[in-house]
Write a structure and sequence with these properties.
- This protein has 14 helices and ten strands.
- It is α/β, with parallel strands linked by helices and about 325 residues long.
- The chain folds into two domains: about 180 residues, 3-Layer(aba) Sandwich (D-Maltodextrin-Binding Protein, domain 2), CATH 3.40.190; about 90 residues, Periplasmic binding protein-like II (D-Maltodextrin-Binding Protein, domain 2), CATH 3.40.190.10.
- Helix 6 links the parallel strand 6 and strand 7.
- Helix 2 packs across helix 11 and helix 12 crosses helix 13.
- The protein is globular and about 60 Å long.
């Protein structure tokens, strides 16, 4: 009976060689893909603000990998320093209010909003200690109010408070990690505090809110993903890929509550109760599609002007609708 040609030693050796060739080819393709991955430098304003959670989720879910992006993430002490990284060409993408883009353009800092992060200050509060004699914003006259950094979202809201309530106080930059310690030690009399830090203070009963900015301030583009003009012009595919991964993470977090709460609790060292509040009031209010509207841009610039900002570039110069995020799926 003739032998099956595929069972001969020569045939088996040929199969093994073919298998090794396929494996070598796969490794070669993987290596080429790794080499082709584009580095994107993210400047994030603080550790505990929701954008850091989203970028962390995108990394853990390997969404950046799927888009051929190698993220390099740096956490700063506030929105101002994070935007300064853009100005210094030390970062490609950040998230900040539109007014920083408008402030930067006349100074030669060329960047644009490429997607909407959030249009509400959900979870942001002007806070004092529970036993503070300060009962209303008008009581802050001559006092010290903690902010993360000059030019940050907390700085903007402090300026908004001063102008809206006709009160004069000193704005003290203490960094994102310094808001709670400086408030608790009474180095400042009040502080503009974002979530989940604000939720933690209220849950523990150590702080109380004078102003809920999420309710007091009209919706506007206070958290916008911003890319440099250089990146937009020379590496548009990297901008698109980064946004795809970011909004893939937003979609996943909003659709997977338990995972999101665990992640928020883990990376911020928070109890489940506070992490749940952060999920419900911050993550769930993040834009699902990133669409940028001229009205939300203009509203942010109007609020910036109300806060005392001058020399702002026109709204039309601050954003582009060129990029439409297509969420990457795990």
């Amino acid at each position: 009976m003739p032998k099956n040609p595929s069972s001969t030693p020569a045939a088996r050796r040929a199969k093994r060689c073919a298998g090794m060739a396929c494996a070598a080819l796969a490794l070669s393709v993987a290596g080429a893909a790794a080499q082709a991955a584009e580095t994107v430098r993210f400047a994030l304003p603080t550790q505990s603000w929701w954008p850091t959670t989203v970028v962390e989720a995108a990394e853990r879910l390997k969404l950046f990998d799927k888009e051929g992006i190698k993220p390099e993430v740096t956490i700063y002490k506030g929105g101002g320093p994070a935007f300064e990284a853009i100005a210094a060409k030390a970062a490609d993408i950040t998230i900040n209010p539109v007014y920083l883009v408008a402030l930067g353009i006349p100074k030669g800092i060329q960047s644009k909003v490429v997607a909407t992060g959030s249009v509400v200050f959900s979870g942001w509060h002007l806070m004092v200690l529970k036993d503070s004699p300060i009962k209303a914003p008008s009581d802050l006259d001559g006092k010290k109010v903690g902010i993360t950094a000059n030019g940050s979202g907390t700085d903007f809201l402090a300026l908004w408070t001063a102008n809206t309530h006709k009160v004069s106080f000193s704005r003290i930059p203490v960094g994102g990690g310094g808001l709670t310690p400086n408030l608790l030690t009474k180095n400042v009399d009040a502080a503009v505090v974002y979530s989940p830090v604000s939720f933690e203070l209220m849950t523990k009963g150590t702080g109380r809110s004078l102003i809920n900015f999420g309710q007091a301030v009209e919706p506007n583009l206070n958290a916008a993903w911003i890319a440099t003009d250089e990146m937009i012009g020379s590496r548009p595919q990297a901008v698109q890929g980064a946004l795809n991964a970011i909004y893939g993470a937003v979609e996943y977090l909003q659709n997977n509550r338990d995972y999101a709460v665990r992640l928020i609790a883990e990376i911020n060292g928070l109890p489940a109760e506070v992490a749940t509040m952060e999920y419900e009031e911050s993550i769930m209010t993040v834009s699902k599609d990133g669409a940028v509207s001229a009205d939300s841009v203009q509203n942010n610039l109007d609020y910036g002007a109300m806060g005392g900002l001058t020399g702002l570039a026109p709204a039309a110069d601050t954003f582009t609708t060129r990029f439409k995020p297509v969420p990457t799926r795990p």
